[in-house]
Design brief:
Chain lengths: 246, 344
């Protein structure tokens, strides 16, 4: 049973990997990579690493590849295909592929063959090998430094993502705050004093949209070199809204 | 291949042919629960909206869901001309397979002896419990997204985009909500979690915040109202399943309802003590599956109730609620639980 599963997942994994580079459509390549990652998770399962297998599917197939699918579906056009590079790129690719093959061969010959030779006295595994508890203990004792370094790197990446995605001056203008925690706690339209001062949630959202549109229009006018007299251009409903708010 | 590995603990208690029979039975039970959930939803929604609901096919309209499924399966299985054939047919299958496979981990009872064979009343007791459900959830996600992308329709595409963003956003909170429970139990196995609750108190008491976050996130994950933006009828027709008819539509539909039942089942297992009955310690073994199903359907009824009560959220509300309220709350819950576990 183990042998059948191993060869099944191994063939699917290799097939998926070939599919990634052989398929013409980028979207299909991404899907082939997903198949490859799921097959790898199967191989992890056969190695008694349930936790790693689940993490592989949840993190790689479930989260990372979703972004790839997103990008391929957003950007990739139906007719768009891979283009082959120039002569230099092809030569470089051959060189790197050869290097990688040599590296893998060394790794295989160094470890794989030796373990085949003395297959009879393989080290036995402790109880609970590959379980979440065992991995957690290893991460917090033996590999603590690597674990902390990786989490620091991830934190830096998260902060970087927030920085890149934040609203900047000159981008889409920021309207008044649309949603806060208190809006979800209180029922809308109950005629509370806050609503009287600031309007209902929907009204504020519409007001924010209108403000954003107007600012974008003003910015476009200003860019075109025209003078944008805000007071003269603004329709009277802005004044009305302000009057109501007061 | 000679496997010289010594596995310290194995989760399988029964012989292999029992496992095969169990897999078939669990799948059949899963598919039987789908029409039950559909019937409950339609009857209850009818009552909530001051009408009868289905009441023609069978006694009290109970055969209506089965009749609908038969009708859908009998229809022509066509596809739009602009669609990608392979992915178009693959997507609904992925959705159903993932849903049924997730149902397998819900423990319907402890290990019992049937005809002299030890049988665990669950599909599998995986050592990674909830992680298995999340892994299959990400497979199911591809069912939705591929269905949307391969249809070659704008509405399907928009639905798939919404599904991608929504499922990723709420999966994080859902996972973090369970961290507290796992820390308290010290095990990822769902059977262990149920046994822990039998010895101590149910987690709905000790992990109430986690329970609330889990149920809300589960509603978003299963595309239930008020988080059903993925298939918001008034905006994008039916989202990712717009172009599907017949068997494909039936598959998506079935997967959706089974996901709802599975979400209820997982919530039952983790927060409502699984097959435990309060103040009745020595309940007979055969009653356990019915207790689990009863509690599960309490959740189904709750989901229907919420659907009948709340209007659909706007998209930015959905996103800011998920990221700015649910996620910090789930993180805080995990943090506080960690401190309590260490101190107490």
């Amino acid at each position: 049973m183990t042998e059948v599963l191993f060869f099944l997942s191994a063939i699917v994994a290799i097939g998926g990997a070939i599919g990634v580079i052989a398929l013409k459509n980028p979207f299909n390549s991404v899907l082939a990579l997903v198949v490859h990652l799921v097959a790898l998770a199967m191989l992890f399962l056969l190695l008694h690493s349930e936790f790693v297998a689940a993490a592989q599917v949840v993190v790689y197939a479930g989260a990372v590849m979703v972004l790839y699918v997103f990008v391929a579906a957003y950007v990739g056009e139906e007719g768009e295909t891979w283009t082959s590079g120039g002569r230099l790129q092809r030569a470089l690719a051959l060189l790197l592929a050869g290097g990688l093959a040599a590296e893998l061969l060394i790794a295989l010959l160094g470890t794989g063959l030796r373990s085949l030779a003395d297959a009879d006295d393989l080290p036995t595994l402790d109880a609970g090998f590959g379980s979440a508890a065992a991995i957690g203990e290893l991460l917090l004792t033996r590999y603590l430094l690597a674990f902390e370094a990786a989490s620091l790197l991830l934190l830096a990446a998260a902060v970087g993502a927030v920085l890149l995605a934040r609203r900047r001056p000159g981008g889409i203008p920021e309207g008044p705050r649309v949603l806060s925690v208190t809006d979800l706690v209180s029922t809308a339209g109950t005629g509370s004093m806050t609503e009287g001062m600031r309007g209902t949630l929907a009204a504020r959202a519409m007001e924010a949209d209108r403000l954003a549109e107007r600012r974008m229009a003003e910015a476009a006018l200003a860019k075109a070199g025209k003078v944008a007299p805000a007071e003269a251009e603004a329709p009277s409903d802005a004044a009305d809204a302000e009057g109501e708010a007061k | 291949m000679t496997s010289a590995l010594v596995v310290g603990e194995t989760f399988a208690v029964e012989t292999w042919w029992v496992a095969v029979i169990k897999a078939v039975i669990i799948a059949l039970v899963g598919f039987t629960l789908i029409p039950a959930a559909v019937t409950i939803e339609r009857k209850l929604l009818g009552r909530f909206q001051h009408r009868y609901g289905p009441n023609r096919a069978g006694p009290y309209g109970t055969l209506q869901a089965g009749a609908d499924i038969l009708k859908l399966l009998g229809k022509e299985n066509f596809r739009p001309s602009g669609s990608a054939a392979f992915l178009f047919y693959l997507a609904p299958m992925l959705a159903v397979i993932a849903a049924v496979a997730t149902f397998a981990i819900i423990p319907l009872g402890d290990v019992v002896t049937i005809f002299g064979q030890p049988v665990g009343l669950y599909g599998i007791d995986v050592g990674i419990g909830p992680l298995y459900a999340f892994a299959l959830g990400s497979i199911a996600f591809y069912g939705l997204v591929l269905g949307g992308f391969s249809s070659g329709s704008k509405y399907s595409y928009l639905g798939a985009m919404r599904a991608a963003a929504q499922l990723i956003s709420y999966e994080v909170s859902m996972g973090l909500a369970l961290v507290g429970v796992i820390m308290a139990t010290g095990s990822l196995s769902l059977v262990d979690i149920v046994q822990y609750q039998q010895e101590h108190t149910w987690f709905i008491v000790t992990q109430f915040v986690g329970f609330l976050i889990f149920v809300i996130a589960a509603m978003a994950e299963t595309n239930r109202a008020p988080f059903d933006l993925v298939e918001a009828d008034s905006e994008i027709v039916a989202g990712y399943m717009t172009e599907y008819g017949g068997g494909g539509f039936a598959s998506f539909y079935a997967a959706e309802y089974l996901n709802m039942v599975v979400a209820g089942g997982i919530a039952t297992t983790i927060f409502l003590g699984g097959w435990a009955i309060p103040f009745w310690g020595d309940a007979p073994d055969w009653i356990a599956p019915f207790v689990v199903l009863f509690k599960t359907f309490l959740f189904v009824i709750f989901f229907v109730w919420i659907r009948a009560t709340l209007p659909r959220l706007r998209y930015d509300q959905l996103m800011s609620f998920g990221w700015k309220i649910l996620l910090p709350l789930a993180t805080l819950n995990a943090l506080v639980t960690a401190i309590v576990v260490v101190v107490a």
